[in-house]
From TrEMBL:
<keyword id="KW-0408">Iron</keyword>
<dbReference type="Pfam" id="PF05721">
    <property type="entry name" value="PhyH"/>
</dbReference>
<dbReference type="InterPro" id="IPR008775">
    <property type="entry name" value="Phytyl_CoA_dOase-like"/>
</dbReference>
<keyword id="KW-0223">Dioxygenase</keyword>
<protein>
    <recommendedName>
        <fullName>Phytanoyl-CoA dioxygenase domain-containing protein 1</fullName>
    </recommendedName>
</protein>
<keyword id="KW-0560">Oxidoreductase</keyword>
<comment type="function">
    <text>2-oxoglutarate(2OG)-dependent dioxygenase that catalyzes the conversion of 2-oxoglutarate to succinate and CO(2) in an iron-dependent manner. However, does not couple 2OG turnover to the hydroxylation of acyl-coenzyme A derivatives, implying that it is not directly involved in phytanoyl coenzyme-A metabolism. Does not show detectable activity towards fatty acid CoA thioesters.</text>
</comment>
<comment type="similarity">
    <text>Belongs to the PhyH family. PHYHD1 subfamily.</text>
</comment>
<dbReference type="GO" id="GO:0046872">
    <property type="term" value="F:metal ion binding"/>
</dbReference>
<dbReference type="GO" id="GO:0051213">
    <property type="term" value="F:dioxygenase activity"/>
</dbReference>
<keyword id="KW-0479">Metal-binding</keyword>
Amino acid sequence: MEVLTEQDVQKYREEGYLVLECFLSPEECDALRERMSEIVERMDVPAHCRTQFSTDHDEQLKSQGNADYFITSGDKIRYFFEKGVFDDKGEFIVPRERSLNKIGHALHAYEPLFKSITHSSKVQNLAQKLELINPVILQSMYIFKQPGIGGEVTPHQDATFLYTEPLGRVMGMWIALEDATVDNGCLWFTPGSHKNGISRRMVRTPKGMFPLTDFIGREQAHDNKLFVPAPVKKGGAILIHGEVVHRSAENTSDRSRHVYTFHIMESENTVWSPENWLQPTEELPFPSLYS
Ligand SMILES: O=C(O)CCC(=O)C(=O)O
């Protein structure tokens, strides 16, 4: 089955993102959501974790415990929470299934259902259509965008966090497991912005230093008027070029917006920066998409 037409490929290369309706069936979406709800029911939350996840770098990594937890999460399944979901004793003040911002970063490796979707023939076919020679999976996340409290994701380029030389080798695959609308925090893009390089990089600081990561360069000023919403129905997917500027707003609605997302890198003739926060490990080298 061909998942991308020539026109799709052209549109992706031109705009830096591409919406693919009906990429997964409703049943596949429900199965992923059901598995996630089992994971959440059983999750064991370490004490230092009972402080919130934030897309603001400084806030996110302000304690050593949280910084370690984040930076070693590339080959694990770990939990990152919304703001204000714990009281000052670290007890949940919202139902635990409404507390999470996201789970990452190795669902694609350790959760069979997520692994099978990641390595499905549809995803492989799509990579072939984009002429990827040796694509590997870098990371995966389940993002909840909780009703009422799901935080905004500020404008960014994924290559800021997943830097390669040359650029242009990383692509996100973002799959809506529920309808994603303007009201519940769908993605917004600046079409064509992937053609302008990146303005900042997140790098590991030298061993023994705290904080564990820092930025080189600055996030550029983004013109709000240039952002275009990309609402997508349950089962729809969005391909995200590593350098396209995108964001999502807070979820102020009463409906969640669950997504499963993962990043693919063309590893042929590509250098993965040893300064990236995410590094392949002995336990989990970046797996080949085609295997
Ligand atoms: O799902 C979202 O709200 C944001 C996701 C995103 O920006 C990303 O994965 O790069």
